[in-house]
## 1
Amino acid sequence: MENRPLEYDYTVAKMFMLTTIVLGIVGMSIGVFIAFELAYPGLNTIFGKTIAEYTAFGRLRPLHTDSVAFGFTVSGIFATWFYVGQRVLKVSMAESKFLMFIGKLQFWLYVAGVAAAVVSLFMGYTSSKEYAEFEWPIDIAIVVVWVLWGVSIFGLIGIRREKSLYISIWYYIATFLGVAMLYLFNNMEVPTMLATSPIGETGIGSWMHSVSMYAGTNDALVQWWYGHNAVAFVFTVPIIAMIYYFLPKESGQAIYSYKLSLLSFWGLMFVYLWAGGHHLLYSTVPDWVQTMGSIFSIVLILPSWGSAINMLLTMKGEWQQVAASPLIKFMVLASTFYMFSTLEGPIQAIKSVNAIAHFTNWIPGHVHDGTLGWVGFMIIASLFHMAPRVFKRELYSKGLMAAQFWIQTLGIVLYFTSMWISGITQGMMWRAHDEFGNLAYSFMDTVNVLHPYYALRGLGGIFYLTGFLMFAYNIYKTMSARPVEESELQNASPMGA
Amino acid sequence: MFHWLEKHPFLFSVGVFLTIAFAGLVEIVPNFAQAARPTIGTKPYTLLQLAGRDVYIKNSCNSCHSQLIRPFKAETDRYGHYSLSGEYAYDRPFLWGSERTGPDLHRIGNYRTTQWHENHMMDPAKIVQGSIMPAYPWLFKNKADINTAYAEQLTDAEFFAVPYNKPVPLKDGKTTIIPMAKSIATAHAMALKEAQAVVKDMHNQNVKDAVAKGDIPEIVALIAYLNSLK
């Protein structure tokens, strides 16, 4: 082999970068809109009373969660895989026509799936299960996309030059396997069109309808085994894959500890799946499952913090980079938010705390400091690092990037502080009794008091969305307006003023 | 060992899969049969109730309302007896929800009437001052999907042994039978009969006219479902 760096083919990575940004804007905009619907009810009629059905909170909520989770985040996972995978396995997609074809096929099927999902959710076709709302035909499409991704992963691994799998690859493999298992089992359903009436009529009713294989308590248990671990294998595992690659690359620092990464990886794999039970505390699932959920949630702090500390210590001796580079800022704050929400989650999983926290706004508060701070920031940082390399151009503006960082950080802080206060207020007011043992507050008392927090949360969302639009603009200008880089870029991403 | 594993992607993947699959097996399998058993007195949904449940799901009511009363004094004071596992035996899917932006609905049938729901769905803030629930006027126009609800009943009976047309034990020791139609045509007649019983207590003329004509607006099915939650 010649002694020069390999050239990689980023065609598919670029395609998924585009959907990451577009679906991010869509999902976050819907999020901001429904946040304000809670602060200002009646907002769903703003686009006209005739379409108010399609803009009501209930109809849009799954669209928000699914477009940020399966749109923005999953696109980000795919985009980074098609970048990172080649580079750490030391093999180019261009070397295999087959893998290139599979990658493109995966992209177009994914786009078709997204379109079908958006339309069907707007029309109210939903299985009602959180983050698994899609009806069965879309589920099948998702499985196909996922299998194609598996072919890409293992195909590329099959023709790799670097024999040893880098840490990021472990996490991508785990993402693939974990989501496959969870998604399949949680979406076991029987399409109602398969039913036959006693006199022999078939194909009755809507074909976009199905019945869950599990009922009641079992359905809840399977759903939260899925729901919690969708968080694990979409919002945690692949994001760790990203930070293990992009932070050392951008900072030029080696990973602090291989042993710590081993411990965190296998620890996370073993422990995470147990913790689903913490969504069902004081429900009708067996007590021992609840207790296991609670205990393992606490144990989960260890592998989570293991990864986060490994990342922060990677910056040891190089902390001046945090001040100098907004890109490093994104990544360091992302791992900090990861530590923060993996401490907050276990606290909420303690039974006595959960008694107050469950069903309140503290839960979306927790979800969002993880997703906005950790997932969002890490995907943004990854795309910023990738842009100059895939487009061979300097990043458009460092100033804009720094401004985006601060605006979005402020947005996150507004979001979680308002949701903490409102969540704990709700929880305390629901359970308060007066001196005669009667309930101290009506349900409406607890709704009225939340208005300012709902408004503040919406404002936080606007800040975050604004920052995201700045990000989109910065990437767009990078693609179109910057001078072309001559040589293969090493560490820190070059950026304009 | 780990260095070796990292050079063998297949075995590495097998190892990861076993590690992650373990917890699910241990947590879900042991109590599965027990948790699927209905409590005495829990009945399968009638056709119109099931159609109403589909309306509930279509509008994602479960994103703001829970159906799970936890065993705390504050909750039993507010919503009634805490929820029991077997009460959900015919709930496919379960609708516990994860947020209480609005109050719990698991026993709403005990303390709200048809007329209350009718007025409330049309304009919640008028009935409950300060309510942040949106108005649902389209429920009064859209037709409930009886065909799909019927197909759902058939699926329940065929694949999951839900006891339609079979005696279901009640709390007082007697039994009752929840009927399931033999054909689409009889299913419609059955749903309409249920709808007529609900509409008797409603005052919206358009809804009354629709039912008189043989149509069933979504609101009628939804109220039938909400009234069944006890």
## 2
Amino acid sequence: MATATTPSPAAGRTSRRGRPGGSRPARIDAAFGMVFAAPAVLGVTAFGLIPFGYVIWYSLHDWNPLIGQFHWVGAANFQRLVTDPVVWGSLWTTLLFAGLLMVLNVTLALALAVLLDQRLAGTGAFRAVFFSPVVVSTVAWVLIWNYLVASNGGINGALAAIGIDGPNWLRDPAWALVTVVVIQVFKSVGMNMVLFLAALQTVPGELKEAARLDGARPGRVFRSITLPIITPTILLVVMITTIGAMDVFVPIQILTEGGPGRSTTVISYLLYRTAFEQQDFGYASAIGVLMFLVLFALAALQWGTRKKWVHDEV
Amino acid sequence: MRHSPRLRRALPAGAMLTAAALTLAACSGQASGDEAADGPVDLRMVMWSSNEAHHAIFDEIADAYVAEHPDEVSSVTFEPLTGSSYINALTTQIAGGDAPDLAWLGESDAAQFVRSGALYDLSPTLESTPDYDVDDLLDGALEVWSKDGDIYGYPFSNSPFGIYVNQDLLKKAGQPDPRDLIADGDWTWDRLMEVAAATAADDDAVAGFQTVVDPYTAWNNALGAMWMSWGAAPWSADGTQCTFDSPEMVEFFDWFHDQIFETGAVPGPGEEYDFASGQTGMMLAQLSSSASLGEDFAWDFVPLPAGPAGTVPVVGQGGVGVISQSDHPEIAADFLAYFTNKANSELLAQFFPPPRASLLTVDTLGAAAPALNEEQIQGTVIDQALEAVTKPGHIKMSELGDPVRADLDALWVPDGDAKTVLSQVCADIEPIIAGG
């Protein structure tokens, strides 16, 4: 006996709307997607979300592991944080560090990328030279610079040879932060340079050519054609550089230990000292939560304003 | 059963979160299962030396202990945590629920570990260990390792501070040999700095005097052995009152400031010199620094000079204690008693000056520092160790280090004023140390 099959209303709706989960192949695609995404989701969950949940939990406790003390204090760590001048001083130092580093790094990386985008002899070698610090161990890089910027080190020796009395780079509060920023910029500028270089090579040559035929000078071509097209890369570079700068730790630990005074005590270094030197893990966790909120706010600000200055963002 | 679309989308994410949580739980479950195991245990001691010869001696003692106690201990592992962040690494292990059974600690951290309850009481074990001979220990050697008459750590290294002298540099600068100054009764900190300033005067590549660690960041370890000769101390004996602003301390810091910015005897902040490379006239350090000295230049090791309060011999100590949060504190304490008994202390004395009077001999210590001659060992190590005081720490040492460092930075400039800066130090640390 032949039977007629009537599609269910629900199936009909699914089909009309073209929902991805509605057909068998689409469900298989979705399943594959889940499988491929699973390692990353598991990694982020296990090593990001769950630890961050713990940090929030710890921030509500007084925890000294040395003596096995762990008890609930509610918002006390956050109340202390609000009135702690050292924390706010460190936050300001961190923002200063991140701002300086971001501006210097992005400007220098873009300038290098534009220079090395020219079809000139030897640009390949220069690209390798500028990128090589990226693959050098950060500790080794910083230790070498520690000797170079010592008050009786190589840089001041070179300056003395031309009659200049160099400053005490890491011990003068006016210079210490800038010195660490410059050392960090030299270490990481190569990565941003490569990102910009890749972006510059996607700019259609015919657009620039058309602008030149219309009489635009090279500066105008760069401002009106090249720069707008690479703004998505600029956004990416600004975001990762800012986040990286806010997390800076190794150069501070090796070069200045937060000094002189507290002139280079950035928030990540303060967090480290509070937790691992002072064994005040609860308060350090509260500082960690503050650090997350600041980073989140900065990233949100950059992301939220992208429509105003990033090409093709709607 | 039919789920809403939103729920269907949430299920895989929930499953992944659950899987991740279960994975973590399974990992921690393995650790707790090990704790509950019966039978012989594995002991672990953290230490800041990665010197192979140190580890060989430690392993030799541990192997003998395991052979004698096969039912209690199956192995003893010595784990090096090297670098300036040793205490931080140790604390991280404890915070992570992976506390070692035993730990090597410096005298500066002893007070904090002992008085906070982080170390296990060793007295019952040491008293019941045959032939341990507690009376053989030097007077005062256990002071920072004890609380209320009970012993919480054993200072297996009891090493006096002295002055290393680069005789070639002093001779080149036309300066007297410190041994002659000692013989003439003219071996004072002032005289030392005069010699140092003259040694550094004509050569930018040479420093006059340095401490073995940087005085501008590690203020207590670098300067603690010096200010005692001024009769100065950073805090009261019970640790509850700041005495950084005492007249003696102000006088000491004024004097040290002058040696940096007036006489040039001491390299300024940010300057790098290395005694072992022949760049420094004199260095304040301990016996162990002799290991890095070769025959590139003639050198000597002489006792500390006298300050306004006379000559105050000072020792730095390396001790070992059992961590209270160890899974096996009683067994670890028993191993510690074996590790530091008289016979094994003699073995350890190959590298570390022992706190036992019977072992403070030229023959025993000659092995510890073969580069030193008999006169140096007797005069600078043994004679000093017998009378020395231990460089003190504080129960809240870890909280004091950074605020004091940050305040003292204001002094390390040419116009820095010791009285003002040290008053600020007290203002900043008094809230921390009040109540000890």
